[in-house]
Each structure stands twice: as C-alpha cells, then as structure tokens.
Amino acid sequence: MASTLADRLSRLVKTMRGQARITETNVQEMLREVRMALLEADVALPVVRDFVARVKDKALGAEVVGSLTPGQALVGIVHKELAATMGELDEKGQLKAGASDINLHTQPPAVILMAGLQGAGKTTTTAKLAKHLIEKRKKKVLTVSGDVYRPAAIEQLKTVTAQAGAEWFPSTPDQKPRDIALAALDHARRHYFDVLLVDTAGRLAIDEALMAEIRELHATLKPVETLFVVDAMQGQDAINTAKAFKEALPLTGVVLTKLDGDSRGGAALSVRAITGVPIKFAGVSEKIDGLEAFNAERHAGRVLG
Ligand code: GDP
User: Where is the SRP54-type proteins GTP-binding domain (predicted)?
Assistant: First the structure.
C-alpha cells in the first residue's frame, strides 16, 4: 500500500529534527513528497502542479513560530493549503467555517438541477437533498425525474422520494424531458412548493446528446442551483467529467458522493479546481440520511492520510 502524505511528511520531519529553520532543500524535498502523495491520491496532474507551486511560495516565505519544529510547520502549511484549495475562502483569504448550503434566494419554487454521469449518485442525492431541505430548512419539496431512457430510474426516484418524505411528480419514458420539466414546474407553482428538485439522465460516458438535453433543461427551468454530482471513487476520471459539465452548464455547486468508500478523496481537489464552484455536500452512505455538509478542513486530513 502506498504511503500516505502524512507518513511521507513525518519521515521528512524526522530528518529535519534539530534544525532551526526551513531550508530551501527541505522545501524541495517536501514538495516532491507532496507531489507524489497527491498523485497517488488520484489528484489530477495540472491541479497537483498548481497546488505544489502555491505551497512552495508559502513554505519559502514561512517563519517558524512558537513551539513548532520546521517539519511540523511544513505539514501545517500543506494541510492549510489543501483545505483552502477544497474549501471556500472569505474576503480575508481565511477558510470559511461553515459549508455552503443550498441557495434558495429566489422566487419559489427554487429549482435545483442535478447533473452528472450515470451511477454518480444523482437519484440518491436528490432524495438526500429533499430530506435535508425538509428537515433543516423546513421546505415543501417536489422531485421529478427527467430520465426518460431508464424507466427504472423514474421508479427509483419515486421510492427514495417517499423515503425522504417529499412529494414526487410522475413522468414517463414517452415524454420529452423539457415537457416533463415544464409540467413539474407548473405543478410546483400551483401547489406552492418551495423547491423543485430535478433529477436528470446520465450516461456512462460524456455524450453530446446528453449535454444538449441538460442544457435545454437548464434554459427551460432557470435553476437557482445546478449541482454537479460526482463519485469520489472516480479519481483521475473526475477531471474530464468535471470539465465537460463545467463547459456545458453554469454549475453552482458540487456534491461529492461515496466518500464512505476507501478513496483518499483526491477528486475533491481536482473537481473544486476545475469547476470553480463550492463543494457543498458529501455523500457518506447509500442511505437517505447519508449526506453531510462538505468540510474542507476535515477532508484535508483525509487527503493527507
Ligand atoms: P445515478 O445514476 O447518478 O442516479 O446514481 P444512483 O443514485 O442510482 O447511485 C448509484 C449507486 O451509488 C447506487 O447503488 C447508490 O446507492 C450508490 N450511492 C450513491 N451515493 C452514495 C454514497 O454517498 N455512498 C455510497 N456508498 N453509495 C452511494
């Protein structure tokens, strides 16, 4: 098994024992370890390069203060920079304490469009979000599936929506996704729903027809949130998927699913860097309550290993 970044850095810290300052050689060695470990954690190469360059700037200028050894100071710099890369910063450049929740600042019904590849966890996450919005935000929530290619997907959404305690709007495979969307929106308006969650079709790989379809749905629904759902286990592939969805749609947030798996979660760095939008939630189990606000600080610890 590959060493974690924490292992690698702690070995380095040992070799630095007794040193009073961080030398340029220490920084170079550390950066090499960081680069290797991030690649092993499946972070995309351009993202790794960029990250390493930022850590280098910070480390070379760093003053070692208090009781920290230079080695510990370096580990601290890496951890902080990891959290800053995956999380959201305030105007002072500090990591924001709370995660970004769903934006509902719009005339109801607030539409949330779910985008992502098949199997990423869109349907499951739609229901998890419905439950979150009902319980934590006290909203009246409607779900609808635009996946006209897989009748089983429509049924799946019906089942999980019931588990979430939300309402489900029926759709059938012979309808056009745009017509489904318009009918659901009309129903949501007439019945005073606060939120309409729209699950969409996914393919196993990026597909132009699928992208055109979801763009049309976006134009029709004018969602306040367009969430890119991505499987944390996807590793390096997450970068291509993220690029394609970012080019197709004005994304507003990311949900990183399957963080209960054994991946180091390096996809979080890649996806945050590529989409430029906040990772709002993390999926942590198959169950309906397996959704957490994404915590960049904690996730940095996981990527470090
Ligand atoms: P979709 O095709 O994007 O709608 O994906 P689904 O919602 O059907 O999810 C695909 C599979 O991943 C299902 O077996 C889900 O139970 C599972 N899944 C979704 N999210 C998570 C998660 O956060 N953790 C785990 N362990 N499984 C998940």
Answer: 278-291
* Alpha carbon nearest to ligand 1 atom 6, residue: 121
Residues of the chain with pLDDT under 50: 1
The CA R_g of the chain, rounded to the nearest whole Å, is 21
Q: ipTM score here?
A: 0.99
pTM: 0.93
Pairing label, strands 279-283, 253-257: parallel
Please report the atom of ligand 1 found closest to the CA of residue 114: 3
Contacts with 296 (C-beta within 8 Å, 6 or more apart), sequence order: 83, 84, 86, 87, 88, 95, 99, 279
| Ligand 1 mutation target, pool 144, 255, 262, 286, most atoms within 8 A of CB | 286
Q: Ligand 1 center to residue 184 CA distance, Å? A: 24
Amino acid at 304: L
